Amino acid sequence: MSTTITFALGASVAAALLTTIGALALVRERRARAALESRLVSLERDHRAACGAEAAVGDRLLAVEQQVRTLVRGQTQLEMKAPATESYRHAITLVERGASTEELVSRCGLARGEAELVHLIHATSSAA
After folding, report:
1. Which value, in Å, is the radius of gyration of the alpha carbons in the chain?
2. Could you give the residue ranges of the DSSP H alpha helices within 97-111?
3. Residue 128 pLDDT greater than 80, yes or no
4. d(CA 44, CA 32)
5. CA-to-CA separations, 29 to 2, 16, 32, 84, in angstroms, rounded
6. 2-48 pLDDT, tens digit each
7. What is the pLDDT of residue 125?
8. Is 51 helix (H, G, I), strand (E, B) or coil?
9. Pick the residue with more confidence: 104 or 79?
10. Does 1 have pLDDT greater than 60?
11. Which of 101, 109, 103 is nearest to 85 (CA)?
């Protein structure tokens, strides 16, 4: 009987030990799972923040691209005006030095009407 009791006692101790080991493993698993869930929540929050920042950067990029297009258009318009402005300036200088309308047409590349207008405006102001 003592062998039976010893065996039963040993089986009870073994069962208790296995239960304790199982319980400890379960506690560790729950802690690990809780840590992983916490990390997942943190990563999801970071992901949402990154997506929001990406959208803001995208909006800013679109605004900057629009500004660049506007500036390029303005620069192109200025470049197109610059040669004409230079021709008029040269024509005005020539008129102030006494050039005729025909000279403005031939030397500045102005149309006859433009040359006459420049001559009319600036010949009068230089004669006054």
Report:
1. 46
2. 101-108
3. no
4. 18
5. 40, 20, 5, 82
6. 777 777 777 888 888 889 998 999 999 999 999 999 999 999 999 99
7. 60
8. helix
9. 104
10. no
11. 109
Helices 2-96 + 101-108 axis angle, to 10: 150
Q: What is the dihedral of CA 41, 47, 52, 57, to 10 degrees?
A: 160
> Per the structure block, which two tokens stand in for 117?
């207008």
Q: Give the tokens for residue 70.
A: 């506007």
**82-116: pLDDT as tens digits:** 667 788 889 999 999 999 999 999 999 899 999 99
Q: Provide the CA 47 distance to its chain's centre, in angstroms.
A: 19
Burial track 29-63 (b if 16+ CB lie within 10 A, e otherwise): eeeeeeeeeeeeeeeeeeeeeeeeeeeeeeeeeee
Q: Is 111 helix (H, G, I), strand (E, B) or coil?
A: coil
Q: Cα(68)–Cα(117) distance, rounded to whole angstroms?
A: 37
Do 124 and 96 form a contact (C-beta atoms < 8 A)? Answer: no
Outline where DSSP puts E strands in the chain. none
d(CA 37, CA 31) in angstroms, rounded, equals: 10
pTM of model > 0.70: no
